[in-house]
Design brief:
This protein is mainly beta. It has one helix and 16 strands. The chain has one helix at residues 2-26, and strands spanning 28-32, 37-41, 48-51, 59-60, 66-67, 72-91, 112-126, 129-143, 148-150, 159-161, 166-185, 195-215, 219-225, 232-242, 245-252, 265-274. The strands form four sheets. The protein has an eight-stranded antiparallel barrel. It has a two-stranded antiparallel sheet with strand order 1-2. The longest helix has 25 residues, at 2-26.
């Protein structure tokens, strides 16, 4: 996970010169008349994009003015739609775990999700609607309550009880995700801000699973395996925001684990999203 975050930061660093130029051109507008000088500065929320097909403002017409209602292809390297929130396990439609899954009992306030996109490509039809496919990474961290160790290399998801107390017992998965987003947005107000509504399906491919444990007796331990997490996951996401910041929710439709006793166990997430643009 640390290597992926470092990579994202490096990508953002490469994009920064273009971002600075864009900000220099777009966020400060000076209008000079015989009697006054008017300056307008627009705040833009976290959203850094190095665009392959140009920016997302629209094409210029014969008078060299931007026409935001003309369609254009968009895409490039990005660091946006940063989701930070909580995850919930759903056991055959219930938030209460069945007896087969009680060993996965978790601390809700410390069971989290984190994700972001690093590339996107699509088409903007006008200033209010665009469609694009993106790619990025996401992590789900389940903070287990019980002093158990999820077992590696087993045909079904199993665990072993431990005779030590873990101050941290985290069970995690990481995925590459590929969402297809349909984005609606309002016109900008006088401050240059707008509302966003984004929804669409998403597929994900497993990178790995991990167990991280901390105890006085054993110190810090980390174990990696697929832990029977689904290698292919599909679901959908919904975002609503204003001025680059908003709320998100994601729901996954197939089972969380490729393990017969966990059939019908899925997961969902919700929280804050940053970098809508």
């Amino acid at each position: 996970m640390k290597r992926l975050i470092v990579t994202a930061i490096l990508v953002s660093g490469l994009a920064w010169p273009s971002i600075q130029n864009a900000f220099a051109q777009d966020t400060v507008t000076t209008t000079t008349t015989a009697t006054n000088v008017k300056k307008r500065r627009e705040f833009k929320a976290l959203s850094m994009t190095l665009s392959i097909g140009g920016d997302d403002r629209g094409k210029k017409d014969s008078t060299n003015q931007v026409n935001a209602n003309k369609g254009k292809f968009i895409g490039g390297i990005t660091f946006t739609r940063v989701d930070l929130g909580f995850s919930k396990l759903v056991d055959n439609g219930s938030f209460t775990l069945s007896p087969e899954n009680e060993f996965l009992d978790y601390k809700g306030g410390k069971t989290s999700t984190f994700s972001f996109d690093i590339v996107q490509m699509g088409y903007r039809f006008n200033q209010h609607f665009k469609v694009y496919v993106a790619g990025g990474f996401d992590w789900t961290h389940i903070r287990l309550r019980k002093d158990i160790t999820i077992q590696k290399n087993t045909p079904e998801l199993t665990y072993a009880e431990d005779d030590v107390h873990f101050s941290k017992n985290r069970f995690s998965s990481s995925y590459v995700h590929i969402p297809l987003n349909f984005e609606l947005r309002t016109s900008e107000n006088k401050n240059g801000n707008r509302f966003y509504f984004i929804a669409g399906p998403e597929v994900s491919f497993l990178l790995n699973g991990k167990v991280k444990q901390v105890s006085d007796e054993r110190g810090k331990q980390k174990f990696s395996d697929d832990y029977r997490f689904q290698t292919f996951r599909y679901g959908g996401s919904l975002r609503f925001g204003y001025n680059g910041i908003g709320l998100f929710t994601k729901v996954y439709f197939n089972d969380m684990f490729a393990s017969a006793p966990q059939k019908g166990l899925t997961n969902m997430s919700f929280g804050l999203t940053f970098g809508l643009n």
